[in-house]
Amino acid sequence: MTRNHRHLLLLLGLGAAALIWATFPPSEIALSDACTPLPGPAQWSSVLYSGPFWRRQLAAVEAEQLDLLSYPARRARLEAEAETARRLSPIESKMERLSQGQGEDPAVKERQEAERHAARLKRAIWLTECAGRIHQRLNE
């Protein structure tokens, strides 16, 4: 085998390795709004590694669903911890009371929280829809 042939085989091997790496099923959500693979590497991955691609997407979707569903409990726990910390420090408590008078309008804060809640709810609905479609695909 000549030196040029070895270089060609090396380049072909590197190209194949790069293709496999680029199309390996992603562990993050790589789905469009219609729950189809995003164009590019995710789309190729779904063709080349159909089963593993969809199982990884299902795992990513379910992990995000769990995170969204646990958000209210996490938030309540963090608020309770912050309240406990404020009670332990009278100076911080007084500073907080003083800053509340200079802070944002409560109506603005409430509207922003409602918008964040609506976005979380919309995302949770989309995740549930995608999980159902993925289950169908895996059971075909």
From TrEMBL:
It comes from the Bacteria. Residues 89-108 are annotated as: Disordered. This is Heavy-metal resistance. It comes from Phaeospirillum tilakii. The lineage of its organism: Bacteria, Pseudomonadati, Pseudomonadota, Alphaproteobacteria, Rhodospirillales.
